[in-house]
Amino acid sequence: MALRMWASSTANALKLSSSASKSHLLPAFSISRCFSSVLEGLKYANSHEWVKHEGSVATIGISDHAQDHLGEVVFVELPEEKNSVSKEKNFGAVESVKATSEIISPISGEVIEVNTKLADSPGLINSSPYEEGWMIKVKPSNPAELESLMGPKEYTKFCEEEDAAH
């Protein structure tokens, strides 16, 4: 963790972004001024959820920026498989040491898988928000909804503006 913090602060000070992969499963990431990683190849909602769309499946979680602002996550409430989620509607909650926050679905569809690891290890959202901390996998009912979400550059700018306003 200390190495990640040092690398993030150094990259930030030098205004660098990395083209190295966080893992073999995810595309390259960039480091924003708020030390949160924003991944290429993902779409982001202004409520700080991310979507990775692959074929007929969309994986959804909360962004590194969101988990950073929440603090230590201690509990996660998620829907059951075969439930429906609707764009811009609550589908669960994340409880941290600071507060409880609703999780808003960035797209509509049927839940086909839930990350059951989060029940016993909610801290995966903090340590690995884009990999092990994903929340649900959805079969999108309207893939065109993805087009209304932000790309990495837009989301980074959105986070910077939001942080500056607070």
From TrEMBL:
Name of this chain's protein: Glycine cleavage system H protein
Main location (coarse class): mitochondrion
Superkingdom assignment: Eukaryota
Positions of the Lipoyl-binding domain: 57-139
Known partners and oligomeric status: The glycine cleavage system is composed of four proteins: P, T, L and H.
The species this protein was found in: Brassica rapa subsp. trilocularis
Function recorded in the entry: The H protein shuttles the methylamine group of glycine from the P protein to the T protein.
Cofactor: (R)-lipoate
Subcellular localization(s) per the UniProt record: Mitochondrion
Cofactor note: Binds 1 lipoyl cofactor covalently.
PROSITE patterns: BIOTINYL_LIPOYL
This protein's record includes keyword Transit peptide: yes
Gene3D superfamilies assigned to the protein according to its UniProt record, in alphabetical order: 2.40.50.100
